[in-house]
Amino acid sequence: xxxxxxxxxxxxxxxLRRVWGHGEFRGLQAPIVAEALAGRDxxxxxxxxxxxxxxxxxxxxxxxxxxxxxxxxxxxxxxQVEALRQQGVAAARLDSGVGLDERSRIWAMARExxxxxxxxxxxxxxxxxxxxxxxxxxxxxxxxxxxxxxxQWGHDFRPDYRxxxxxxxxFPGVPRMAVTATADPRTRDxxxxxxxxxxxxxxVDSFARPNLxxxxxxxxxxxxxxxxxxxxxxxxxxxxxxGVVYCGSRDGAERLAEALKAAGVPAIAYxxxxxxxxxxxxxxxxxxxxxxxxxxxxxxxxxxxxxxVRFVIHADPPSSLEAYWQEVGRAGRDGEPAEAVTLYGxxxxxxxxxxxxxxxxxxxxxxxxxxxxxxxxxxxxxxxxRPQAVRRYFGETDxxxxxxxxxxxxxPARRDATVEAQKALAAVQRLGERFxxxxxxxxxxxxxxxxxxxxxxxxxxxVGANVDLSAWRDLIDHLLFEGLLVEDPNDGRPVLxxxxxxxxxxxxxGERRVETALRPVAAQAPV
Length: 527
Ligand code: ADP
Ligand code: ZN
Fold this sequence. Notes:
Layout: H1 10-20, H2 29-37, E1 42-45, H3 52-62, E2 66-70, H4 74-86, E3 91-94, H5 100-111, E4 117-120, H6 122-126, H7 130-135, E5 139-144, H8 167-170, E6 176-180, H9 185-194, E7 201-204, E8 212-218, H10 224-236, E9 243-246, H11 250-262, E10 267-270, H12 276-288, E11 293-296, E12 311-314, H13 321-328, E13 338-344, H14 346-357, H15 363-380, H16 386-393, H17 406-409, E14 413-416, H18 418-430, H19 437-445, H20 453-456, H21 469-482, E15 485-488, E16 495-498, H22 501-508, E17 515-518, H23 520-523
Parallel strand pairs: 1-6, 1-7, 2-4, 2-5, 3-4, 5-6, 8-13, 9-11, 9-12, 10-11, 12-13
Antiparallel strand pairs: 14-17, 15-16
Helix pairs in contact: 1-3, 2-3, 14-15, 15-21, 18-19, 19-21
The structure holds adenosine-5'-diphosphate (ADP) and zinc ion (ZN).
Protein backbone atom coordinates (compact mmCIF):
# COMPACT_ATOMS: atom_id res chain seq x y z
CA UNK A 1 0.00 0.00 0.00
CA UNK A 2 0.95 3.67 -0.13
CA UNK A 3 1.66 3.77 3.58
CA UNK A 4 4.37 1.19 3.47
CA UNK A 5 6.25 2.90 0.62
CA UNK A 6 9.57 4.24 1.80
CA UNK A 7 10.06 8.00 1.79
CA UNK A 8 11.62 8.64 -1.65
CA UNK A 9 13.77 11.31 -0.07
CA UNK A 10 15.10 9.19 2.78
CA UNK A 11 18.23 8.14 0.93
CA UNK A 12 18.63 11.64 -0.49
CA UNK A 13 18.64 13.05 3.06
CA UNK A 14 21.04 10.39 4.16
CA UNK A 15 23.39 11.38 1.31
CA LEU A 16 23.07 15.08 2.15
CA ARG A 17 24.12 14.30 5.73
CA ARG A 18 26.82 11.81 4.97
CA VAL A 19 28.54 13.61 2.09
CA TRP A 20 27.86 17.27 2.84
CA GLY A 21 27.14 17.23 6.55
CA HIS A 22 23.90 19.23 6.14
CA GLY A 23 21.09 18.17 8.45
CA GLU A 24 18.14 18.96 6.21
CA PHE A 25 17.27 20.14 2.73
CA ARG A 26 16.39 23.78 2.66
CA GLY A 27 14.05 25.89 0.57
CA LEU A 28 12.93 24.09 -2.56
CA GLN A 29 15.77 21.56 -2.61
CA ALA A 30 13.63 18.67 -1.38
CA PRO A 31 10.87 18.92 -4.02
CA ILE A 32 13.45 19.54 -6.75
CA VAL A 33 15.46 16.47 -5.76
CA ALA A 34 12.26 14.41 -5.54
CA GLU A 35 11.24 15.44 -9.04
CA ALA A 36 14.61 14.53 -10.49
CA LEU A 37 14.71 11.22 -8.62
CA ALA A 38 11.37 10.42 -10.22
CA GLY A 39 12.98 10.98 -13.62
CA ARG A 40 11.17 14.17 -14.60
CA ASP A 41 12.51 17.39 -16.13
CA UNK A 42 13.00 20.43 -13.91
CA UNK A 43 13.81 24.11 -14.18
CA UNK A 44 15.07 25.38 -10.82
CA UNK A 45 15.53 29.10 -10.20
CA UNK A 46 17.23 29.52 -6.84
CA UNK A 47 19.07 32.58 -5.61
CA UNK A 48 22.86 32.58 -5.32
CA UNK A 49 23.85 30.57 -2.27
CA UNK A 50 20.53 28.75 -2.42
CA UNK A 51 22.29 25.43 -2.82
CA UNK A 52 21.64 24.62 -6.45
CA UNK A 53 24.41 22.09 -6.88
CA UNK A 54 23.13 19.40 -4.52
CA UNK A 55 19.82 19.54 -6.44
CA UNK A 56 21.46 17.74 -9.36
CA UNK A 57 24.40 16.13 -7.57
CA UNK A 58 22.29 13.99 -5.23
CA UNK A 59 19.93 12.60 -7.92
CA UNK A 60 23.01 11.91 -10.08
CA UNK A 61 24.50 9.87 -7.26
CA UNK A 62 21.32 8.00 -6.41
CA UNK A 63 20.01 7.20 -9.87
CA UNK A 64 21.78 4.57 -11.88
CA UNK A 65 24.27 5.94 -14.39
CA UNK A 66 26.37 9.07 -14.64
CA UNK A 67 25.07 12.57 -14.01
CA UNK A 68 26.24 14.82 -16.83
CA UNK A 69 26.72 18.44 -15.74
CA UNK A 70 27.07 21.12 -18.41
CA UNK A 71 28.70 24.20 -16.92
CA UNK A 72 30.09 27.23 -18.75
CA UNK A 73 32.85 28.04 -16.32
CA UNK A 74 35.88 25.79 -16.38
CA UNK A 75 37.28 27.34 -13.19
CA UNK A 76 34.04 26.65 -11.36
CA UNK A 77 33.93 23.16 -12.75
CA UNK A 78 37.44 22.41 -11.49
CA UNK A 79 36.57 23.63 -8.00
CA GLN A 80 33.35 21.64 -7.81
CA VAL A 81 34.96 18.43 -9.02
CA GLU A 82 37.85 18.86 -6.61
CA ALA A 83 35.47 19.47 -3.69
CA LEU A 84 33.33 16.47 -4.62
CA ARG A 85 36.36 14.19 -4.80
CA GLN A 86 37.51 15.28 -1.39
CA GLN A 87 34.07 14.36 -0.10
CA GLY A 88 34.47 10.91 -1.61
CA VAL A 89 32.18 11.41 -4.61
CA ALA A 90 33.27 9.88 -7.92
CA ALA A 91 33.38 13.04 -10.02
CA ALA A 92 35.42 14.01 -13.07
CA ARG A 93 35.60 16.74 -15.65
CA LEU A 94 36.37 16.62 -19.34
CA ASP A 95 37.72 19.87 -20.70
CA SER A 96 40.57 20.89 -22.96
CA GLY A 97 42.97 20.76 -20.01
CA VAL A 98 42.54 17.01 -19.48
CA GLY A 99 45.18 14.75 -21.05
CA LEU A 100 44.55 11.65 -23.17
CA ASP A 101 45.35 9.06 -20.50
CA GLU A 102 43.09 10.74 -18.00
CA ARG A 103 40.36 10.89 -20.63
CA SER A 104 40.40 7.18 -21.33
CA ARG A 105 40.43 6.48 -17.61
CA ILE A 106 37.33 8.70 -17.14
CA TRP A 107 35.46 7.06 -20.02
CA ALA A 108 36.31 3.62 -18.71
CA MET A 109 34.94 4.53 -15.29
CA ALA A 110 31.80 5.95 -16.87
CA ARG A 111 31.19 2.78 -18.86
CA GLU A 112 31.67 0.62 -15.78
CA UNK A 113 29.16 2.70 -13.85
CA UNK A 114 31.91 3.76 -11.45
CA UNK A 115 31.36 7.48 -12.02
CA UNK A 116 28.66 9.60 -10.38
CA UNK A 117 29.21 12.98 -12.00
CA UNK A 118 30.84 14.10 -15.22
CA UNK A 119 31.33 17.84 -15.85
CA UNK A 120 31.68 19.22 -19.36
CA UNK A 121 31.60 22.65 -21.00
CA UNK A 122 29.01 23.36 -23.70
CA UNK A 123 31.74 23.64 -26.37
CA UNK A 124 33.31 20.40 -25.19
CA UNK A 125 29.98 18.64 -25.39
CA UNK A 126 29.61 19.22 -29.12
CA UNK A 127 33.29 18.78 -30.02
CA UNK A 128 34.81 15.60 -31.39
CA UNK A 129 33.12 12.34 -30.54
CA UNK A 130 31.85 13.42 -27.14
CA UNK A 131 28.15 12.97 -27.90
CA UNK A 132 28.73 9.56 -29.49
CA UNK A 133 30.66 8.35 -26.47
CA UNK A 134 28.03 9.69 -24.09
CA UNK A 135 25.41 7.69 -25.93
CA UNK A 136 27.34 4.53 -25.09
CA UNK A 137 27.00 5.11 -21.37
CA UNK A 138 24.07 5.11 -19.00
CA UNK A 139 23.11 8.67 -18.04
CA UNK A 140 21.33 9.32 -14.75
CA UNK A 141 20.54 12.95 -15.48
CA UNK A 142 21.64 15.90 -17.57
CA UNK A 143 22.08 19.09 -15.55
CA UNK A 144 22.51 22.44 -17.26
CA UNK A 145 24.07 24.94 -14.89
CA UNK A 146 23.80 28.72 -15.40
CA UNK A 147 20.88 27.99 -17.72
CA UNK A 148 20.10 31.70 -18.24
CA UNK A 149 23.08 31.75 -20.64
CA UNK A 150 20.80 30.07 -23.18
CA UNK A 151 18.54 33.10 -23.45
CA GLN A 152 19.19 36.30 -25.28
CA TRP A 153 16.84 37.89 -22.77
CA GLY A 154 19.24 36.86 -20.03
CA HIS A 155 22.09 39.06 -18.88
CA ASP A 156 24.80 36.68 -19.96
CA PHE A 157 23.80 35.21 -23.31
CA ARG A 158 26.19 32.65 -24.77
CA PRO A 159 25.42 31.55 -28.30
CA ASP A 160 26.98 28.10 -27.77
CA TYR A 161 24.34 27.42 -25.11
CA ARG A 162 21.59 27.50 -27.71
CA UNK A 163 22.70 24.11 -29.05
CA UNK A 164 21.90 22.44 -25.73
CA UNK A 165 18.29 22.20 -26.90
CA UNK A 166 19.44 19.35 -29.13
CA UNK A 167 20.06 17.20 -26.05
CA UNK A 168 16.32 16.59 -25.85
CA UNK A 169 16.47 14.56 -29.09
CA UNK A 170 19.92 13.11 -28.55
CA PHE A 171 19.09 11.68 -25.12
CA PRO A 172 15.39 10.94 -25.01
CA GLY A 173 14.39 9.45 -21.71
CA VAL A 174 17.21 11.04 -19.74
CA PRO A 175 15.74 13.55 -17.29
CA ARG A 176 17.13 17.04 -17.62
CA MET A 177 17.50 19.77 -15.02
CA ALA A 178 18.21 23.41 -15.82
CA VAL A 179 19.38 25.57 -12.92
CA THR A 180 20.04 29.28 -12.65
CA ALA A 181 20.26 31.98 -10.02
CA THR A 182 18.74 34.66 -12.16
CA ALA A 183 15.87 34.64 -14.56
CA ASP A 184 13.11 37.14 -15.05
CA PRO A 185 9.85 35.58 -16.28
CA ARG A 186 10.65 36.23 -19.92
CA THR A 187 14.08 34.60 -19.65
CA ARG A 188 12.50 31.68 -17.83
CA ASP A 189 10.07 31.03 -20.69
CA UNK A 190 12.90 31.32 -23.15
CA UNK A 191 14.98 28.75 -21.22
CA UNK A 192 12.07 26.29 -21.25
CA UNK A 193 11.64 26.71 -24.97
CA UNK A 194 15.28 26.76 -26.02
CA UNK A 195 16.17 23.74 -23.90
CA UNK A 196 12.98 21.95 -24.95
CA UNK A 197 11.84 21.59 -21.35
CA UNK A 198 8.15 22.02 -22.22
CA UNK A 199 7.09 19.42 -19.67
CA UNK A 200 9.45 20.48 -16.93
CA UNK A 201 8.19 21.47 -13.55
CA UNK A 202 9.39 24.96 -12.70
CA UNK A 203 10.56 25.79 -9.19
CA VAL A 204 11.22 29.42 -8.36
CA ASP A 205 12.48 30.21 -4.90
CA SER A 206 11.94 33.59 -3.35
CA PHE A 207 14.71 36.07 -4.02
CA ALA A 208 14.24 37.75 -0.67
CA ARG A 209 17.47 38.37 1.21
CA PRO A 210 16.11 39.65 4.53
CA ASN A 211 19.55 40.03 6.12
CA LEU A 212 20.79 42.37 3.38
CA UNK A 213 20.49 46.09 3.85
CA UNK A 214 20.70 47.82 0.49
CA UNK A 215 21.39 51.41 -0.37
CA UNK A 216 22.57 53.48 -3.31
CA UNK A 217 24.10 56.92 -3.63
CA UNK A 218 24.37 59.19 -6.59
CA UNK A 219 27.99 60.14 -7.19
CA UNK A 220 28.51 63.79 -6.41
CA UNK A 221 30.58 64.28 -9.57
CA UNK A 222 32.05 62.14 -12.30
CA UNK A 223 35.45 62.64 -10.68
CA UNK A 224 37.22 59.39 -9.90
CA UNK A 225 39.08 60.96 -7.02
CA UNK A 226 35.79 61.90 -5.36
CA UNK A 227 34.38 58.43 -5.88
CA UNK A 228 37.54 56.82 -4.49
CA UNK A 229 37.33 59.10 -1.50
CA UNK A 230 33.72 58.15 -0.85
CA UNK A 231 34.60 54.45 -1.10
CA UNK A 232 37.43 54.94 1.40
CA UNK A 233 34.97 56.61 3.79
CA UNK A 234 32.45 53.79 3.39
CA UNK A 235 35.07 51.10 3.94
CA UNK A 236 36.65 52.94 6.87
CA UNK A 237 33.27 53.13 8.59
CA UNK A 238 33.21 49.32 8.32
CA UNK A 239 36.75 48.71 9.51
CA UNK A 240 37.47 45.25 10.86
CA UNK A 241 34.86 43.62 8.66
CA UNK A 242 35.34 41.63 5.52
CA GLY A 243 33.98 43.12 2.30
CA VAL A 244 34.10 43.31 -1.46
CA VAL A 245 34.49 46.51 -3.47
CA TYR A 246 33.51 46.11 -7.12
CA CYS A 247 35.19 48.28 -9.75
CA GLY A 248 34.38 48.61 -13.43
CA SER A 249 37.98 48.35 -14.61
CA ARG A 250 41.26 46.65 -13.73
CA ASP A 251 42.97 50.03 -13.38
CA GLY A 252 40.24 51.18 -11.04
CA ALA A 253 40.61 48.08 -8.87
CA GLU A 254 44.40 48.52 -8.61
CA ARG A 255 44.13 52.22 -7.86
CA LEU A 256 41.41 51.86 -5.26
CA ALA A 257 43.18 48.96 -3.53
CA GLU A 258 46.29 51.13 -3.22
CA ALA A 259 44.28 54.05 -1.87
CA LEU A 260 42.59 51.80 0.69
CA LYS A 261 45.90 50.32 1.77
CA ALA A 262 47.25 53.83 2.23
CA ALA A 263 44.24 54.45 4.49
CA GLY A 264 45.20 51.41 6.59
CA VAL A 265 42.66 48.94 5.20
CA PRO A 266 43.89 45.39 4.42
CA ALA A 267 42.77 45.64 0.79
CA ILE A 268 43.57 43.12 -1.94
CA ALA A 269 43.23 43.91 -5.65
CA TYR A 270 41.85 41.16 -7.90
CA UNK A 271 41.16 41.07 -11.63
CA UNK A 272 41.52 38.94 -14.72
CA UNK A 273 44.71 40.72 -15.77
CA UNK A 274 46.63 38.83 -13.08
CA UNK A 275 48.28 35.44 -13.48
CA UNK A 276 46.10 32.55 -12.33
CA UNK A 277 48.56 31.62 -9.56
CA UNK A 278 48.61 35.19 -8.30
CA UNK A 279 44.81 35.29 -8.28
CA UNK A 280 44.77 32.03 -6.30
CA UNK A 281 47.10 33.50 -3.69
CA UNK A 282 44.99 36.62 -3.34
CA UNK A 283 41.79 34.64 -3.07
CA UNK A 284 43.33 32.39 -0.41
CA UNK A 285 44.34 35.46 1.59
CA UNK A 286 40.85 36.93 1.32
CA UNK A 287 39.29 33.67 2.50
CA UNK A 288 41.74 33.31 5.39
CA UNK A 289 41.66 36.85 6.78
CA UNK A 290 38.76 38.08 8.89
CA UNK A 291 38.86 41.71 7.87
CA UNK A 292 40.22 41.60 4.32
CA UNK A 293 38.61 43.75 1.66
CA UNK A 294 38.70 42.44 -1.90
CA UNK A 295 38.84 45.24 -4.48
CA UNK A 296 37.88 43.50 -7.66
CA UNK A 297 36.37 43.51 -11.11
CA UNK A 298 33.58 41.07 -11.90
CA UNK A 299 36.29 38.48 -12.55
CA UNK A 300 35.94 37.91 -8.81
CA UNK A 301 33.02 36.13 -7.25
CA UNK A 302 31.83 33.22 -9.32
CA UNK A 303 31.95 30.24 -7.01
CA UNK A 304 33.57 32.16 -4.15
CA UNK A 305 31.86 31.05 -0.98
CA UNK A 306 33.02 33.22 1.93
CA UNK A 307 30.11 33.19 4.34
CA UNK A 308 31.13 36.17 6.49
CA VAL A 309 31.41 38.90 3.84
CA ARG A 310 29.75 41.80 5.68
CA PHE A 311 29.53 44.36 2.89
CA VAL A 312 29.63 44.82 -0.86
CA ILE A 313 30.35 48.28 -2.23
CA HIS A 314 30.00 49.10 -5.90
CA ALA A 315 32.46 51.84 -6.79
CA ASP A 316 31.03 51.45 -10.29
CA PRO A 317 27.57 50.02 -10.80
CA PRO A 318 26.98 46.56 -12.29
CA SER A 319 25.53 45.93 -15.75
CA SER A 320 22.00 44.77 -14.92
CA LEU A 321 19.67 43.99 -12.04
CA GLU A 322 20.61 40.34 -12.42
CA ALA A 323 24.28 41.15 -11.97
CA TYR A 324 23.42 43.53 -9.12
CA TRP A 325 21.50 40.88 -7.21
CA GLN A 326 24.22 38.32 -7.76
CA GLU A 327 26.96 40.68 -6.63
CA VAL A 328 25.21 42.09 -3.54
CA GLY A 329 24.26 38.48 -2.74
CA ARG A 330 27.92 37.73 -2.03
CA ALA A 331 27.45 39.56 1.27
CA GLY A 332 25.86 37.83 4.25
CA ARG A 333 25.77 34.29 2.94
CA ASP A 334 25.90 33.16 6.58
CA GLY A 335 22.51 34.82 7.11
CA GLU A 336 23.93 37.44 9.48
CA PRO A 337 23.26 41.13 8.76
CA ALA A 338 25.18 42.53 5.80
CA GLU A 339 25.13 45.68 3.71
CA ALA A 340 25.47 46.71 0.10
CA VAL A 341 26.11 50.26 -1.07
CA THR A 342 26.07 51.11 -4.78
CA LEU A 343 27.55 54.34 -6.13
CA TYR A 344 26.24 55.43 -9.49
CA GLY A 345 26.28 58.49 -11.69
CA UNK A 346 25.17 59.66 -15.13
CA UNK A 347 28.61 58.98 -16.57
CA UNK A 348 28.21 55.35 -15.49
CA UNK A 349 25.09 54.73 -17.53
CA UNK A 350 26.75 56.44 -20.49
CA UNK A 351 29.73 54.13 -19.98
CA UNK A 352 27.53 51.03 -19.75
CA UNK A 353 25.79 51.87 -23.00
CA UNK A 354 29.00 52.82 -24.76
CA UNK A 355 30.64 49.56 -23.76
CA UNK A 356 27.78 47.67 -25.36
CA UNK A 357 28.27 49.65 -28.56
CA UNK A 358 31.87 48.51 -28.68
CA UNK A 359 31.10 44.80 -28.39
CA UNK A 360 30.48 42.50 -31.29
CA UNK A 361 26.96 41.23 -30.76
CA UNK A 362 23.66 40.86 -32.41
CA UNK A 363 21.68 44.11 -32.55
CA UNK A 364 18.68 42.52 -30.81
CA UNK A 365 20.92 41.27 -28.00
CA UNK A 366 22.52 44.70 -27.69
CA UNK A 367 19.12 46.28 -27.25
CA UNK A 368 18.15 43.81 -24.56
CA UNK A 369 21.40 44.54 -22.72
CA UNK A 370 20.89 48.30 -23.08
CA UNK A 371 17.40 48.00 -21.65
CA UNK A 372 18.73 45.94 -18.76
CA UNK A 373 21.27 48.67 -18.01
CA UNK A 374 18.51 51.29 -18.00
CA UNK A 375 16.34 49.18 -15.71
CA UNK A 376 19.20 48.91 -13.25
CA UNK A 377 19.77 52.66 -13.21
CA UNK A 378 16.06 53.37 -12.93
CA UNK A 379 16.03 51.20 -9.79
CA UNK A 380 19.16 52.85 -8.38
CA UNK A 381 17.73 56.32 -8.94
CA UNK A 382 14.17 55.34 -8.14
CA UNK A 383 12.11 55.70 -5.00
CA UNK A 384 10.74 52.13 -4.67
CA UNK A 385 12.05 49.86 -1.91
CA ARG A 386 15.14 48.30 -3.53
CA PRO A 387 14.64 44.57 -2.84
CA GLN A 388 10.99 44.98 -3.74
CA ALA A 389 11.91 46.57 -7.08
CA VAL A 390 14.42 43.82 -7.85
CA ARG A 391 12.12 40.97 -6.80
CA ARG A 392 9.26 42.38 -8.88
CA TYR A 393 11.63 42.50 -11.80
CA PHE A 394 12.28 38.80 -11.20
CA GLY A 395 8.57 38.15 -11.31
CA GLU A 396 7.75 38.12 -7.59
CA THR A 397 4.72 40.34 -7.90
CA ASP A 398 3.75 39.93 -4.26
CA UNK A 399 7.13 41.05 -2.84
CA UNK A 400 6.70 43.28 0.20
CA UNK A 401 8.73 46.30 1.17
CA UNK A 402 11.91 45.19 2.95
CA UNK A 403 11.70 47.79 5.70
CA UNK A 404 15.49 48.17 5.98
CA UNK A 405 16.82 49.59 2.71
CA UNK A 406 17.73 53.28 2.49
CA UNK A 407 14.45 54.08 0.74
CA UNK A 408 12.36 52.23 3.37
CA UNK A 409 14.19 53.76 6.31
CA UNK A 410 14.17 57.28 4.95
CA UNK A 411 11.59 57.49 2.19
CA PRO A 412 12.32 60.46 -0.05
CA ALA A 413 9.44 62.74 -0.92
CA ARG A 414 8.33 61.90 -4.43
CA ARG A 415 7.25 64.34 -7.01
CA ASP A 416 5.49 63.90 -10.31
CA ALA A 417 7.86 65.58 -12.73
CA THR A 418 6.15 64.54 -15.96
CA VAL A 419 5.54 68.12 -17.12
CA GLU A 420 9.15 69.15 -16.48
CA ALA A 421 10.30 65.96 -18.20
CA GLN A 422 8.22 66.86 -21.26
CA LYS A 423 9.80 70.32 -21.29
CA ALA A 424 13.33 68.93 -20.98
CA LEU A 425 12.81 66.32 -23.70
CA ALA A 426 11.23 68.91 -26.00
CA ALA A 427 14.14 71.28 -25.38
CA VAL A 428 16.69 68.61 -26.31
CA GLN A 429 14.69 67.86 -29.45
CA ARG A 430 14.19 71.50 -30.54
CA LEU A 431 17.86 72.20 -29.97
CA GLY A 432 18.58 69.49 -32.50
CA GLU A 433 20.22 67.05 -30.06
CA ARG A 434 23.43 69.03 -30.45
CA PHE A 435 24.12 70.42 -26.98
CA UNK A 436 25.28 69.30 -23.55
CA UNK A 437 23.32 69.48 -20.33
CA UNK A 438 24.60 72.93 -19.25
CA UNK A 439 23.42 74.52 -22.44
CA UNK A 440 20.08 72.68 -22.34
CA UNK A 441 19.45 73.89 -18.78
CA UNK A 442 20.38 77.47 -19.75
CA UNK A 443 17.91 77.21 -22.61
CA UNK A 444 15.14 75.96 -20.31
CA UNK A 445 15.87 78.76 -17.86
CA UNK A 446 16.02 81.30 -20.70
CA UNK A 447 19.47 82.49 -19.72
CA UNK A 448 21.70 81.34 -22.62
CA UNK A 449 24.52 83.86 -22.97
CA UNK A 450 24.35 85.96 -26.15
CA UNK A 451 21.32 84.01 -27.25
CA UNK A 452 20.68 84.09 -30.97
CA UNK A 453 17.34 84.71 -32.61
CA UNK A 454 16.83 81.14 -33.78
CA UNK A 455 17.15 79.87 -30.21
CA UNK A 456 15.14 82.62 -28.52
CA UNK A 457 12.44 81.92 -31.09
CA UNK A 458 12.02 78.27 -30.03
CA UNK A 459 8.91 77.42 -28.04
CA UNK A 460 11.04 75.82 -25.35
CA UNK A 461 13.19 78.90 -24.68
CA UNK A 462 12.76 79.95 -21.05
CA VAL A 463 9.89 77.52 -20.59
CA GLY A 464 11.43 76.23 -17.37
CA ALA A 465 12.30 79.51 -15.69
CA ASN A 466 10.03 78.66 -12.75
CA VAL A 467 12.26 75.75 -11.72
CA ASP A 468 15.57 76.02 -9.93
CA LEU A 469 18.85 75.28 -11.73
CA SER A 470 19.80 72.38 -9.46
CA ALA A 471 16.35 70.82 -9.85
CA TRP A 472 16.80 70.86 -13.63
CA ARG A 473 20.20 69.23 -13.34
CA ASP A 474 18.72 66.63 -11.04
CA LEU A 475 15.85 65.91 -13.41
CA ILE A 476 18.12 65.61 -16.43
CA ASP A 477 20.24 63.09 -14.53
CA HIS A 478 17.09 61.19 -13.69
CA LEU A 479 16.01 61.17 -17.35
CA LEU A 480 19.41 59.73 -18.19
CA PHE A 481 18.95 57.01 -15.58
CA GLU A 482 15.53 56.19 -16.98
CA GLY A 483 16.98 56.11 -20.47
CA LEU A 484 14.67 58.85 -21.75
CA LEU A 485 17.77 60.88 -22.51
CA VAL A 486 21.11 59.52 -23.63
CA GLU A 487 24.43 61.29 -23.23
CA ASP A 488 26.57 60.92 -26.31
CA PRO A 489 30.27 61.41 -25.47
CA ASN A 490 30.90 63.19 -28.81
CA ASP A 491 34.70 63.14 -28.41
CA GLY A 492 34.71 64.66 -24.96
CA ARG A 493 32.07 67.33 -25.66
CA PRO A 494 29.03 65.37 -24.48
CA VAL A 495 25.65 66.11 -26.04
CA LEU A 496 22.18 65.07 -24.92
CA UNK A 497 20.04 63.05 -27.28
CA UNK A 498 16.60 61.55 -26.95
CA UNK A 499 16.34 57.93 -25.77
CA UNK A 500 14.07 55.15 -27.07
CA UNK A 501 11.50 56.86 -29.37
CA UNK A 502 8.57 54.80 -28.04
CA UNK A 503 9.37 55.66 -24.46
CA UNK A 504 9.91 59.34 -25.19
CA UNK A 505 6.60 59.47 -27.07
CA UNK A 506 4.82 57.89 -24.11
CA UNK A 507 6.11 60.70 -21.88
CA UNK A 508 5.02 63.38 -24.36
CA UNK A 509 1.55 61.84 -24.38
CA GLY A 510 1.48 61.62 -20.59
CA GLU A 511 1.06 57.84 -20.78
CA ARG A 512 4.31 57.38 -18.96
CA ARG A 513 4.71 59.40 -15.77
CA VAL A 514 8.11 60.51 -14.61
CA GLU A 515 8.50 60.51 -10.89
CA THR A 516 11.56 61.75 -9.08
CA ALA A 517 12.67 61.41 -5.52
CA LEU A 518 13.14 64.86 -4.05
CA ARG A 519 16.69 64.70 -2.88
CA PRO A 520 18.21 67.32 -0.58
CA VAL A 521 19.70 69.27 -3.48
CA ALA A 522 16.43 69.37 -5.39
CA ALA A 523 14.43 70.11 -2.26
CA GLN A 524 16.00 73.57 -2.13
CA ALA A 525 14.27 74.47 -5.35
CA PRO A 526 11.72 77.25 -4.96
CA VAL A 527 8.18 76.07 -5.61
P1 ADP B 1 24.50 28.09 -5.42
O1 ADP B 1 25.16 27.31 -6.52
O2 ADP B 1 23.02 28.02 -5.45
O3 ADP B 1 25.01 29.50 -5.28
P2 ADP B 1 25.81 26.19 -3.77
O4 ADP B 1 25.29 24.96 -4.36
O5 ADP B 1 27.21 26.59 -4.08
O6 ADP B 1 24.85 27.40 -4.07
O7 ADP B 1 25.61 26.13 -2.20
C1 ADP B 1 25.89 27.25 -1.41
C2 ADP B 1 26.31 26.80 -0.02
O8 ADP B 1 25.18 26.29 0.69
C3 ADP B 1 27.33 25.68 -0.05
O9 ADP B 1 28.29 25.94 0.96
C4 ADP B 1 26.52 24.46 0.28
O10 ADP B 1 27.29 23.46 0.88
C5 ADP B 1 25.48 25.02 1.23
N1 ADP B 1 24.25 24.21 1.27
C6 ADP B 1 23.63 23.65 0.22
N2 ADP B 1 22.53 22.98 0.63
C7 ADP B 1 22.46 23.13 1.97
C8 ADP B 1 21.55 22.68 3.00
N3 ADP B 1 20.49 21.93 2.71
N4 ADP B 1 21.80 23.04 4.27
C9 ADP B 1 22.89 23.79 4.57
N5 ADP B 1 23.77 24.25 3.66
C10 ADP B 1 23.58 23.93 2.38
ZN1 ZN C 1 13.17 48.53 1.33
